[in-house]
Every structure is written in C-alpha cells, then in structure tokens.
Amino acid sequence: xxSVEIANIFALCTLATVVAALVGxxxxxxxxxPFTPVQSALYALNYAIVRILWxxxxxxxxxxxxxxGAVVVCNHRCPxxxxxxxxxxxxxxxWMVAKEYCEYPGxxxxxxxxEVIPVRRGGVDMxxxxxxxxxxxxxxxxxxxPEGRINTTAxxxxxxxxxxxxxxxxxxxxxxxxxLHGAPYDGTTLGCLFTPATVRLExxxxxxxxxxxxxxxxRHALKELxxxxxxEIARLGGQPDFEPQVSGRFSISDE
Length: 255
Description:
The chain is an alpha/beta fold. The chain has helices at 2-32, 37-53, 81-86, 105-113, 126-137, 163-171, 218-236; strands at residues 57-59, 70-74, 93-98, 117-119, 141-144, 175-181, 200-203. It is 40% helix and 13% strand.
C-alpha cells in the first residue's frame, strides 16, 4: 500500500515538474518574443491555418540584418495574402490596409492588434505613406500589395502602384519581393478560411534601391523602381519575361 502511495506521489511530482517546465518555457518565449501575448496567440493560430489548412511551402527567406527596416511586397490573389507572409519572420509586418476595413466593428480590434496602417482609397494617401516611411526608418517591416486589389484575372499581375517604391526610396530601405502560388479565393472575404489549398510562397532577395537615389529625375526613378519590383515579383512567379504595367502618379516630393 505504501509503495502505491509513493508511486502516486512520484507521478504527481513528475507531472508538476513537467507542467512547471512547460510554463517556464512559454514565459521565456513570450519574454523574448517581439509580439504581445495576444499577438503571439494570433501568430500561433495563423501559423496553424497557413501550415495545416493551406499546406504552405516556403522557398527562400526574408533575410535582413537585425534592425533593418524594409518594404515587403507580394502579388494579390486572396483576401488573406498577408497571413502567408506573417509566418516567415519573427517580426511584425505592418500591412497597409484599406481604411474602410479598419472601421468595420468585426475587424477593427483585430487589425489594430495587428498594427496595420489604414490607407484611404483613391489617389495617394500621403498620411499613410509618411507613417509607413517612419516605421521603416525605425527598422520595422511594412507590407504592401502593389496591385491594390485582388487579381481575379488570368494575368500574372495587375498594373502596380508606386507606393512601395516611394516608401523605400524615402526611407532608403530595401524592398523584399514575394510571390504566392495557389492562394485560395472563393469570391468572399472569409471564405478562403474554409477552403483547403496547396500554397507555395517564393521569397526573393532584397532589392537595393540605392541605384535609384542619385538620378536627376526622381519621377523617372520612382517609375523604374516600381517596374523593377513588379518584374521581380513576376520572375518569382515563373514569368521572367513578363512586362508589367505601372499605374498611379509618380512624385516623391510630398513631405
């Protein structure tokens, strides 16, 4: 009888030790994590969805020195495209999101927690651009989908806007091009959460913007850098000869 009690006490002590070790491990991870506890929970949920439901394979990595700010760009095939990029780095990516989404009661708190940058549709939202420049200059990552809307056509890319290039030039920071293959989309905002898929994410080398900083025509430099970025996205998508179209106005003189 005594031996049974000793065995039970030993089992309870072992279990308590394991639980304490797990709690200590989780506390250590949270202390080292750049995310808040709520952000960490969202990151874990997002990781599970991206890796399990969408069976995402990642080729390449966002390789930047610690504290290096950058602009991350990608093609746009799914409402939740940023979710795929979020699992590639242990850093927050501040995505530029249409302002109306940030005002919906169901999305407002979520997007605030994810530290997105609200952007007014129509023209160039210089307040959002300036906020993004400040973040990149502080060593943060800013995410942009240069097509501006979901591409439901058979084209490789829709005409791209110059916001990413403008931010990178002002912040003197690199641009990281990416391409998503097979992102699920059923025509609704959240329907992709219930759509199994096999997704492949290609991450390219950071684009150095310094060759575009010394020209005498800033407007031309902005347009050419935008074209270069779109070509890199297309190359990662398997179409190196794709000739992208550039849309929007070209000015980097706004302060």
